[in-house]
Amino acid sequence: MSVPMLKIGAVLSTMAMVTNWMSQTLPSLVGLNETVAPSGTSERIISALYPGPDEGWQVYTSTADAEGKCVCTVVAPAQTPCSRDPRNRQLRHLTERVQNVTQSMELLDLRTSRDLQHVRDSEPLLRGVEGRVRTAHANPRTLSAKGFQELKRSVSQLLPLLPVLQQFRGDALLLLELREEVRNLSAALAAVQEELGAYDYEELQHRVISLQTRLQSCMNKLGCGRLTGISNPMTVRASGSRFGSWMMDAIIPSSDNRVWSMDGYFKGRRVLEYRTMGDFVKGQNFIVHVLPYPWAGTGHVVYNGSLYYNKHQSNVVVQYHFRQRRVLLQRSLAEAGYNNTFPYSWGGWSDIDLMADETGLWAAHSSLSRGGSLTLSRLDPGTLEVVRSWDTGFPKRSAGEAFLICGTLYVTNSHLAGAKVHFAYHTSTGSYEYADVAFHNQYAHLSMLDYNPRERALYAWNNGHQVLYNVTLFHVVHGGGGGGGPGEA
After folding, report:
1. Which residue stretches of 34-85 are H helix?
2. CB of 485 within 8 A of CB of 26?
3. Between residues 50 and 329, which one has the greater pLDDT?
4. Considering 57, 214, 299, 320, which has the largest number of Cβ atoms within 10 A of its Cβ?
């Protein structure tokens, strides 16, 4: 096969975390076509976004190398890498048996202590009866009718001891069984230890962790590509006013599942922090952060534990750290318009739109010196200084919303029903192109549309509804031996 033909044949759709795999399985898991998430949907949303640690290896991408061999990108379970080892199951079974023996011994100890105390309490009465019986046996004439009745009553008081003694007999048999079980457990553990002696499981675990790291790195590289499709929307929740924003952190580990919600676009200060996606869906278990400065617009982003937002009535970008509950930085975005000077088509003080992708922190804005065209600036998250800016040439007031994937800015032509992605600007080449990527604007009024690189999904605030979209990216594999770069076609 010629190289050009190989290039054409090697164009494959790749997705990471929540791309093709989620696009195909998410509808059945969470009821993709439903308007509002029904009861029980939160658990299904969580299971779709965050696969459980006990799930098996999952294939995310497949392609062909220069020799025509199939190369797959997979991700291993994050925990318990040896959970499917037969020895691991045998050890779990032995652990359960040990727990059963332990519980039986605890119960036996409790019962024995109680019964022993009963025997001790009955001991004086038993000794008195024994003495009187011996006296009567030695000299029967000393036992009167009254004495016989007293002796009978004393013996009657001793009758409760009979079931106690019977229980002791049963416990003696149980002790024999437990001793035999312990002997069997000792033999089984010795056998397992002998088998494990031939394997260095600590070394194997380090190798698995190393492989997981390499696979994650490979997955991230292949995760970048050209946007070719957006899934149907999944409504996570209906809450708040017509305008607002909601998000998860763009880069921190997936073990942190916090969700933030910011209702409104004008002079708001209250940020709701939910512990998990499930809590957000149910509207429970949240704390409130009160920002020292009000915000403008809905173009906020949470990046590495901090909220970055546009300060009201200014072109100042503020960094608020959630753990420390204080402002760490604030810096003016030079020449950027504010106060509805250059908003998106829906208005709402959306002059400055902060966003994040796989490459870092960004701001979409405009200025008079740029003639109102949409400008994309990469920011240093530690200083908020502009690293570099690109003039896309697209009039910002004509843009409905915009989001960034792998260094490419995608712009919608409207915020209303019928909107589609129709413009893309590539920062890697400084070039643009017109696109035609449709998506379903279910509630007919977008006031926020942002990409989360960690979840590989679009988050939207649509007329009081919090919505998720999955994306499909294309990646080109070159037949000359090297992997293709993102965004090439």
Report:
1. 41-49
2. no
3. 329
4. 299
